[in-house]
């Protein structure tokens, strides 16, 4: 849980181990960058809510519009045309793009459907989380329930917990708990 002396007044970092993530990244000498669609910068803002986050947070790309997923984050036109903006391959390329374009050790990509309507055949609550780090790239498909805010904040919290798990494990899925 978040230590009150570490900025617990920031509502974005309440009930999420953002401070733990910042400390783990700092201890590992690593940095993170984000490429966010449905969360529109919430992940980067949540990490930035931790005092001292500037040591580990390189930056973030808000790629809400499909064309920006390509032009800013480097998602291939082919993936966007064949699989769409809400897809595992899109999340993976968002994560890789964030990592490369921001010069970070870790890249996190988030794309999905917060609602109120389904998109591209994906029901509301479908989220793809991409993680790209030292020697490891993974995509996790999430099914979140709730309204737009609940889905967006749930995706953000899950991204923080998953990244923390991999940073603590040394960046490999084999050693992740």
Rg on CA atoms, Å: 15 Å
Portion of residues in beta strands equals 15-25%
Detail the poorly predicted runs: none
Average residue pLDDT? 93
The largest sheet, given as strand count, sense and whether it forms a barrel, is: 5 strands, mixed
CATH topology: Maf protein
Superfamily (CATH H level) name: CinA-like
The helix fraction, in percent, is 25-40%
List the strand order in the largest sheet. 2-1-3-4-5
Overall, the morphology is: globular
> Mind telling me which CATH architecture this is?
Alpha-Beta Complex
Order of helices and strands: HEHEHHHEEEH
Number of separate domains: 1
User: How far is the first residue's CA from the last residue's CA?
Assistant: 18 Å
Briefly, what CATH class? Alpha Beta
By DSSP, the count of extended strands is 5
Helix count, DSSP H or I runs of 4 or more residues:
6
Can you offer a commentary on this structure?
The protein is α/β, with parallel strands linked by helices. The chain is built from six helices and five strands. The protein has helices at residues 18-28, 42-48, 66-71, 77-82, 88-102, 148-168; strands at residues 32-36, 57-62, 106-112, 126-133, 136-143. It has a five-stranded mixed β-sheet. A hairpin with a 2-residue loop joins β4 and β5 (136-143). α1 packs parallel to α6 and α2 packs across α6 (148-168). 42% of the residues are buried.
């Amino acid at each position: 849980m978040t230590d009150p002396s570490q900025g617990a007044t920031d509502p974005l970092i309440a009930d999420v181990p953002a401070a733990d993530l910042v400390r783990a990244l700092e201890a590992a000498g690593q940095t993170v960058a984000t490429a966010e669609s449905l969360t529109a910068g919430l992940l980067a803002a949540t990490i930035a809510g931790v005092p001292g986050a500037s040591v580990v947070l390189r930056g973030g790309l808000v790629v809400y519009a499909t064309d920006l997923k390509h032009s800013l984050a480097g998602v291939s036109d082919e993936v966007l045309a064949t699989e769409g903006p809400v897809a595992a391959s899109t999340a993976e390329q968002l994560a890789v793009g964030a990592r490369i374009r921001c010069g970070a050790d870790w890249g996190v990509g988030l794309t999905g459907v917060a609602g109120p309507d389904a998109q591209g055949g994906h029901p509301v609550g479908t989220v793809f989380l991409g993680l790209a780090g030292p020697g490891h790239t993974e995509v996790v498909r999430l099914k979140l329930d709730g309204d737009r805010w609940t889905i967006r904040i749930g995706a953000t919290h899950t991204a923080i917990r998953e990244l923390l798990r991999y940073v603590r494990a040394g960046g490999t899925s084999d050693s992740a708990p």
